[in-house]
Amino acid sequence: MEDGTVFKGTAFGAKSNVFGEIVFTTSMTGYQETITDQSFNGQIIVFTYPLVGNYGVNRDDYESITPTCKGVVVKEHARVASNWRSQMTLDEFLKQKGIPGIAGVDTRALTRKIRQAGTMKASIVDAGDTFEHAFDQLKATVLATNQVQQVSTSKPYPSPGTGRNVVVVDFGLKHSILRELSKRNCNLTVLPYNTDAKTILSLAPDGVMLSNGPGDPKDVPEAIEMIRGIQGKIPIFGICLGHQLFALANGADTYKMKFGHRGLNHPVREIATGRIDFTSQNHGYAVVEKTVDTKQLMITHVEINDGTVEGIRHRHYPAFSVQFHPDAAPGPHDALHLFDEFIEMMDAGEEN
Question: Can you tell me which residues bind L-glutamine (predicted)?
Answer without folding.
Answer: 39, 213, 215, 241, 244, 282, 284-285
